[in-house]
Amino acid sequence: MSKPTDLVQGTLDLLILKIIALEPMHGWAIAQRIRQMSGEVLHVGQSALYPSLHKLEHNGWITAEWAISQNNRRAKYYTLTRSGKKALEQEAAQWERLAAAIAAHLDTLLANAGFARVIVRVVPDDVPEVARDLRRLRKGYEARFRALIDAIDVVPGVDRTLLRLMLLGALNATQTWFKRGAGKADTAVIASQFAAILRQGAARAGRQG
């Protein structure tokens, strides 16, 4: 069984927002929901939970109101505000933009074999007559992915440069196994799943570090 893992603050804030977006909850219920969602892996103590709730309330992303809980006790219930909802939407939009860029990159690689060979396999020094143009081309799409990776919300401990390089390496290898049709997933589906796996992996890597 996995050892209970502590959440870093940025990830905890985001989890809280996602949980209370479903319905207002008090602190103990939020902590329990996090444990349930993680399969009993993530345990959040009061020393981490309540400072995070206080910060989110101070930022205007949640509101708090006293009410009677199901066990007939007074508890402070937290509710997502419009600003909190907007923060969640912005976080999701960053990953959607990355997924769109992944799909576009895959489409280009898989639809243009000549372009793919140049981008993936040719080293600029091997073709001195076009080395400058090739470097400019590579720097262009690497810069776009660098900006996208820099924009997404990953927790401390995740190396964004390494994340970008691993992403591009995996994408560039897609042409070795991808086949269109025959019931295979299209590039948009692959990109969406790739981004989802990347999103979960980046958060988990940071929590384990």
Give the beta-strand count: 3
- Please state the overall shape, judged from the principal axes of the Cα atoms: elongated
Number of domains: 2
Kindly provide the radius of gyration, computed on alpha-carbon positions and rounded to a whole number of angstroms: 22 Å
Strand line-up across the major sheet:
1-3-2
How many H/I helical runs? 8
CATH class category of the largest domain: Mainly Alpha
Q: Main traits of this protein?
A:
3-stranded antiparallel sheet; Arc Repressor Mutant, subunit A; Tetracycline Repressor, domain 2; disordered N terminus; 2 domains; mainly alpha; 209 residues
Secondary-structure blueprint of this entry?
Layout (H helix, E strand, L loop, with lengths): L8 H12 L4 E2 H11 L8 H13 L3 E7 L5 E7 L1 H30 L1 H9 L9 H21 L8 H13 L14 H22 L1
Helix pairs in contact: 1-3, 4-6, 4-8, 6-7
